[in-house]
Specification:
This protein is α+β, with helices and mostly antiparallel strands and 369 residues long. Helix content is 40%, strand content 17%. The strands form three sheets. A six-stranded antiparallel β-sheet has the order 2-4-3-6-7-5. A five-stranded mixed β-sheet has the order 10-11-12-13-14. Strand 11 and strand 12 form a beta hairpin. It is globular. The protein starts with 5 loop residues before the first strand and ends with a strand. 41% of the residues are buried.
């Protein structure tokens, strides 16, 4: 598992896979999984469904869709200033903790700053809250309504102010499996019916990250959430944490009783959805993604493709297509894959096709070498 206090890359890989429910599928509700995983990446509607499918026994899309409809989970901008799917409780706590990220955007957004000159941000946010209390609105409709009060300002720039200063949630049908539609917003506290806490605990925030992703460095925690100066928080937590080092000598922290499996623990083939947090939540991603392959999947447009794990590490990407009623799962490997691992991918891929394309006339799996 470790040599002294040093955790090898492979040991870190197995620890993270264990926390991320990727060593074996868990018998866990979708709600409990979203909470355990410290939220799910949700820049587009489908990734949370693929994330839960690959982690849970018998997961069906309707379970997550119903949680959204029941307002038990929400889609909201938090960590790194990106949309995440969180439990309502975590959203209430974490939106205010990540507010500094939004304020940084207000200070440095070059696209919108020309339209923000001498603008009263607080007044814009207050009016936006009033408008959204009347009825949910899309970004475009909200911006146009705000521009009636502030003529001459770009509606999109006014909406950006509201996005940065208000806890806006994307409400259904956005985020429902098989549904489409542009994001429509209300404020989190109105949607949930609870006030946002004024003093959520940054210590609990860091502990939740370590539970879901550890062992990890301070830099890893900061890469996950987008905040800085978390070393001060970790220092306050030191008496409650166990310390390790990686092979490069960087200090890592973890919960004392958290699982750290043997590095030789088998890791099954897995298909991860786009933007999966397993490849986005570390400053040092080498525990799951080599630097060589990082350059192949991190694009300039910020889109993170669906990737394949073999023996716990990213080794390719995958895509779904449909032609004349036949659904095809295509895997593009980045390296040579053994026949044994190809068979494992074929078996897992067949399950993925049944999940994602249940109405197709037929299913096809192929490797695009």
């Amino acid at each position: 598992m470790s040599t002294g206090d040093v955790l090898t890359t492979r040991a870190l890989n197995r620890a993270t896979l264990s926390r991320q429910l990727l060593l074996e599928r868990e018998r866990m509700s979708a709600y409990d999984a979203v909470e355990h995983l410290a939220g799910l990446q949700a820049q587009s509607p489908s990734p949370p469904y693929f994330a839960l499918w690959t982690r849970l026994v018998g997961f069906q899309p309707d379970e997550l869709a119903q949680l959204l409809l029941d307002r038990r989970v929400v889609r909201i901008v938090t960590m790194r200033g990106t949309v995440h799917l969180l439990t309502a409780r975590d959203a209430l706590d974490w939106r205010s903790l990540t507010q500094p990220i939004m304020e940084t955007d207000l200070r440095g957004n070059t696209q919108h700053s020309p339209h923000w000159q001498d603008l009263d941000f607080a007044a814009v946010a207050a009016h936006a809250r009033e408008l959204l209390a009347e009825e949910p609105r899309s970004a475009k409709v909200l911006g146009e309504a705000l521009a009636e009060r502030w003529p001459g300002r770009a509606p999109s720039s006014l909406t950006q102010v509201a996005r940065n200063l208000l806890p806006l949630v994307q409400i259904p049908p956005r985020g429902l499996w098989g549904k489409s539609g542009q994001p429509t917003y209300v404020t989190l506290d109105d949607w949930i019916g609870e006030a946002i806490p004024s003093n959520p605990s940054p210590e609990d925030f860091v502990l939740r990250y370590l539970r879901a992703f550890g062992p990890a460095s301070v830099q890893d925690v900061q890469a996950w959430c987008g905040l800085t100066r978390l070393g001060e928080v970790v220092d306050r937590l030191r008496p409650r944490l166990r310390s390790f080092r990686n092979e490069a000598g960087r200090e890592l922290f973890d919960l004392p009783g958290a699982p750290r499996p043997d590095p030789d623990t088998p890791a099954p083939a897995r298909f991860l959805g786009g933007f999966d947090q397993n490849v986005l939540s570390f400053a040092d991603r080498t525990r799951v993604l080599s630097e060589e392959y990082r350059k192949r999947i991190f694009t300039k447009n910020g889109l993170i493709p669906q990737v394949v794990l073999v023996d716990g590490f990213v080794c390719g990407r995958w895509s779904l297509g449909r032609d004349k009623g036949i659904a095809t799962l295509a895997v593009e490997p980045f390296e040579k894959i053994s026949k044994k691992d190809i068979r494992a991918l074929e078996k897992e891929g067949a399950e993925l096709l049944r999940f994602a394309e249940p109405t197709a006339k037929g299913h096809d799996f192929r490797i695009d070498w």
